[in-house]
Design a protein that fits this description.
The complex is a heterodimer of chains A (278) and B (625).
Chain A lengths: L1 H17 L1 H26 L1 H5 L5 H10 L4 H30 L9 H38 L4 H34 L6 H14 L1 H24 L9 H27 L4 H7 L1
Chain B lengths: L4 H10 L3 E2 L8 H6 L20 E10 L4 E11 L6 E7 L11 H6 L2 E2 L2 E2 L5 E9 L2 E3 L1 E4 L4 E10 L4 E11 L8 E3 L2 E4 L5 E2 L1 E2 L5 E2 L14 E10 L3 E4 L2 E2 L4 E2 L10 E11 L4 E4 L3 E7 L2 E7 L5 H18 L7 E6 L10 E3 L2 E4 L11 H12 L15 H19 L6 E3 L2 E3 L1 H9 L17 H23 L1 H15 L6 H11 L2 H17 L4 E6 L3 E7 L6 E7 L4 E6 L5 E5 L3 E7 L14 E3 L4 H16 L5
Parallel strand pairs in B: 2-17, 24-25, 25-27
Antiparallel strand pairs in B: 1-29, 2-3, 3-11, 4-10, 4-14, 5-6, 7-8, 7-11, 9-10, 12-13, 13-22, 15-16, 17-21, 18-22, 19-21, 20-21, 23-24, 26-27, 28-29, 30-31, 31-34, 32-33, 32-35, 35-36
Classes of the chains: A mainly alpha (278), B alpha+beta (625).
Chain lengths: 278, 625
């Protein structure tokens, strides 16, 4: 295991040294989207934002019920920010990865990469939407099926398996998207089809390393999210120190993610043989 | 004013887990319920010694799982009115589910508590005998009421025996009754006598979707023949262990006879399912039987019931019956869950319910409290539903607050939590304000009924606490229960006790509050807005209660001012303002827009934005690569 990880670490660290500015762009891009979401959220909360340091769901609920007529335009605004993020975030990742990329191949231009990444992102966004839709449509049937079982332990097992399957499928699609973007950005593949074959190979060759990286990155995400929630405790004032700590966690996660992508791609054979393989 | 999808989603999906309240916020519950009032032991007494004027003897054969019931009811009725009776009125509740044209189905639009109607149900009277004479029954209105003309007058004080043979089909489980797979919930399944008023008229209305039930106290003696492998729970006490039937129409191995007796109850319900796990305990001198689902931990229910019985006894009155049956229904029987019957109630806490989420615990304590309000203090749920639902929501809310903490009595996951008072406020905001004391059918929808009769009525009692003190409210309730047990009191009795318990200095406010909320449908809507150096208090709605204005300046110093005048808009100069809020705790439980009872000086709002930025970025990452 160590022998497998060591070269990855070396390669990824070498790559990371080359692109601190690119990482900065990724961080700044995400910050901009966060700020945009914040502005929409503030506008949506309106009075509640103005009245409470931490609006309770009693506040949110009462506003939602009182101002239900304004729901549609605000839903569109929030949806637009989310969709823009879903499309733009892969592009930001691709740019960073391209800066980090190996120079074993003549990399395509950023514009070429952007077009390919955008196509792939649209494809995966549709696929993820389909997964969510299919899950939601199937859920009532699974629920009914589970309720025909008298023993609730077996019910729980069935429902739990269905929930876990849905989450795994979503995660798998996210992971596929991420590695496909990496393959395109690093110039290891030139279209979605060849990228998917390459990613399959990555999964085969580097599965343990890749899943370890994925777990690390997801753990950091979850940790930051939970910490973010915990910091909404009213007794804890939001100081610059706390804000800085959260940002350090966010940046750590970004670095870990990029590191994981480069590292898993590094296990591929040399460009000539990989090109042959494709 | 603007809203976001996020706000609605948060609201709808989590039933309002809350981000913690503000720093320095002395929440309503914390200060009010921290110390419970020292209460004198409620007078402990069992059932009345004399027999009630009505007696049911029912024998029925229940074909499970088909849900077909054939049986006969022997009614022994004494005329307690002041005039001679010429007819009897009976409820045939199951006919509400016979077609889409009944009043129930029209008023519910075919759905009840989010569940749609399935296969129909019905009940038919096949014959009626009054003493030795045959009598005719006539279906009235939409078929949920029948009239039986008596062959001869029944004079005041005299008794008669009426034998009714009937056949019924339980519907697919809907609106508390029916069959779901192998499970049968037998509720409102037999011809049930209407309520005889002292003037000789009958209270026996058509079944409406918002209405629950109202009947006279009676003694019940019921035998049920059910398939042998079925586990049965029912109102009252089991007379003997189930025995094989001698009925020749069935093989003796396949059927068993269950015999139950109940004294001084006003309804009889049963439940049957082959897979129930039966757990029995003796709690507070009562035989408690729990029928639960395989896989669930029975201790959660038993501990709740142990706690609830003790607390209700301490605070209001002891449970007077020797037996209590709790039915923890499987998930597929949800349309029958959360319903009270005398000495039996249904609840539902799935095994995956985490210990920090108390929605199921609330159902159990709510239905247990119903044993008092409506079970023993048998108010009219059709004409004055707030008397049992509102009071029960308030009292069970107190029990939950005491057990799980005021701010965490609905749900509690770290910094995310919700209390009973907030839940009631959310509930009452889900529909327009209406007079709380109206009859069930006067509310235009189930949402309106729930928001006003449950949420708003319970919030009324929390507001009364802020005016009178919790100890005085509970004292009034104890007197109301003591006078109203095994009787049918009305709203005016409860109001009189509340007024009698209120101190003179707040009596006018209590009168205005009761009048405004119960009969006029008045709103309470106070709004604060903060400038850099002033606070504006705006009062809308018809209810003007005395309030307190609190504020804190930039140095953290706290100020307070009484707001006793009914002025629509007041402006108070407050140099160096940081934040302001209205009080005292609980006084604004009825507020129509709780979000604006607190405000920040405008320069404090950027700090809030920073607080949310990292969180929003992490949430956005969900849709990223």
């Amino acid at each position: 295991m160590i022998s497998r990880f060591a070269p990855l670490c070396v390669a990824a660290t070498r790559g990371a040294r080359r692109a601190p500015r690119a990482l900065l762009w990724l961080w700044a891009g995400q910050l901009c989207f966060g700020a945009a979401a914040l502005l929409v959220f503030r506008a949506a909360l309106g009075d509640a934002w103005a009245h409470r340091p931490a609006p309770s769901l009693l506040d949110l609920g009462s506003l939602a019920l009182r101002e239900s007529g304004a729901l549609l335009p605000m839903s569109i605004a929030v949806g637009a920010v989310v969709l823009l993020y879903a499309l733009a975030s892969p592009l930001l990742h691709a740019v960073v990865l391209q800066r980090l990329g190996r120079v074993r191949l003549e990399l395509p231009s950023t514009q070429q990469v952007a077009v390919s990444v955008l196509k792939v992102t649209l494809l995966f966004t549709l696929a993820r939407a389909a997964v969510v839709l299919a899950w939601l449509l199937t859920w009532p049937g699974v629920l009914r099926l589970s309720q025909t079982i008298a023993d609730e332990r077996w019910q729980l097992l069935l429902l739990g398996a269905f929930v876990v399957a849905g989450l795994l499928l979503w995660s798998l699609l996210s992971l596929l998207l991420r590695h496909t973007i990496a393959a395109l950005a690093l110039g290891l593949a030139h279209d979605a089809s060849s990228a998917s074959r390459l990613v399959a190979r990555v999964y085969h060759d580097a599965s343990r390393a890749m899943w370890a990286c994925w777990a690390l990155e997801r753990g950091l995400w979850l940790g930051t999210l939970l910490l973010g929630l915990a910091l909404h405790m009213p007794t804890l004032p939001l100081t610059w120190g706390v804000a800085l700590l959260l940002e350090v966690l966010v940046v750590t996660r970004l670095v870990a993610r990029i590191w994981a992508l480069v590292a898993t791609m590094e296990v591929l054979p040399a460009p000539s043989s990989s090109a042959d393989a494709l | 004013m603007r809203l976001s999808l996020l706000a609605l989603l948060l609201f709808a999906t989590s039933l309002a887990l809350r981000f913690s309240a503000v720093a320095g916020d002395s929440t309503a519950g914390d200060s009010i319920t921290k110390d419970w009032p020292a209460t004198a032991p409620a007078p402990r007494s069992g059932l009345p010694s004399k027999a009630p004027p009505l007696r049911y003897r029912i024998h029925a054969r229940v074909d499970a799982p088909a849900g077909r019931i054939r049986g006969d009811v022997k009614l022994q009725l004494r005329n307690t009115s002041q005039v001679a009776l010429t007819e009897l009125r009976l409820h045939l509740y199951l006919n509400a589910f016979a077609s889409k044209d009944t009043r129930f189905m029209r008023s519910s639009r075919g759905a009840h508590r989010g569940h749609s109607a399935g296969d129909p149900g019905w009940i038919k009277i096949q014959s009626v005998e009054v003493g030795e004479d045959k009598a005719e029954s006539t279906k009235l209105l939409d078929g949920t009421v029948a009239s039986v003309r008596l062959p001869r007058r029944l004079d005041p004080g005299t008794a008669v025996e009426v034998t009714i043979t009937f056949e019924a089909q339980l519907p697919q489980l809907f609106a508390r009754t029916g069959r779901a797979g192998e499970l049968l919930m037998g509720a409102q399944w037999y011809p049930k006598l209407g309520f005889l008023r002292p003037d000789g008229s009958w209270h026996c209305p058509e079944f409406h979707a918002n209405s629950e039930f109202f009947a006279q106290f009676a003694d019940y003696d019921v035998t049920l023949d059910l398939p042998a492998r079925t586990i049965v729970g029912a109102t009252g006490e089991r007379v003997a262990t189930p025995s094989h039937t001698s009925d020749t129409s069935h093989t003796s191995n396949a059927w068993r006879r269950h015999h139950f007796r109940a004294r001084w109850v006003h309804d009889f319900a049963f439940v049957a399912w082959p897979h129930f796990k039966r757990v029995a305990r003796r709690i507070e001198g009562i035989d408690v039987e729990l029928l639960t689902v395989p896989g669930r931990d029975p201790e959660r229910q038993m501990q709740l019931v142990r706690y609830g019985l003790a607390e209700l006894s301490r605070l209001l009155a002891p449970y007077p019956y020797p037996r209590l049956t709790i039915v923890d229904l499987p998930s597929r029987a949800r349309p029958a869950a959360a319903m009270e019957y005398p000495t039996l109630f249904t609840t539902l806490i799935p095994m995956w319910t985490p210990s920090w989420h108390h929605a199921g615990d609330e159902i159990t304590l709510h239905e247990l409290t119903h044993q008092l309000f409506q079970g023993i203090v048998a108010t009219n749920e059709v004409e004055e539903p707030w008397l049992d639902e509102g009071l029960t929501t308030y009292v069970s809310g107190l029990l939950l607050e005491r057990r799980f903490g005021p701010a965490r009595s609905v749900s509690s996951l770290g910094p995310l939590h919700l209390g009973q008072r907030e839940k009631n406020q959310l509930h009452m905001l889900m529909a327009p304000v209406a007079p709380v004391a109206g009859p069930a059918a006067s509310f235009p929808s189930w949402a309106s009924y729930g928001a006003n009769v449950y949420g708003r009525a319970a919030s009324l009692f929390f507001t009364l606490e802020s005016l009178m003190g919790q100890d005085r409210v509970l004292r009034a309730l104890r007197r109301y229960v003591a006078k109203g047990r095994f009787a049918h009191p009305q709203g005016e009795h409860l109001e009189a006790e509340l007024l009698a318990a209120s101190p003179p200095e707040v009596r006018a406010a209590v009168v205005a509050l009761l009048q405004g909320v119960l009969r006029e449908g008045s709103r309470l809507d106070a709004r604060l807005s903060c400038g850099q150096a002033h606070i504006e208090v705006e009062r809308r709605g018809g209810l003007h209660l005395p309030l307190e204005l609190h504020w804190r300046d930039v140095h953290g110093k706290h100020y307070q001012r009484q707001l006793t005048k009914s002025i629509p808009v007041e402006r108070h100069p407050t140099p160096g303002l940081r934040e302001a809020w209205l009080g005292p705790p609980g006084r604004l439980s009825l507020d129509a827009s709780p979000a604006d009872n607190r405000c920040l000086a405008s320069d404090g709002r950027w700090a809030i934005s920073l607080r949310y930025l990292p969180l929003l970025r992490q949430l956005l990452a969900l849709v990223g690569p």
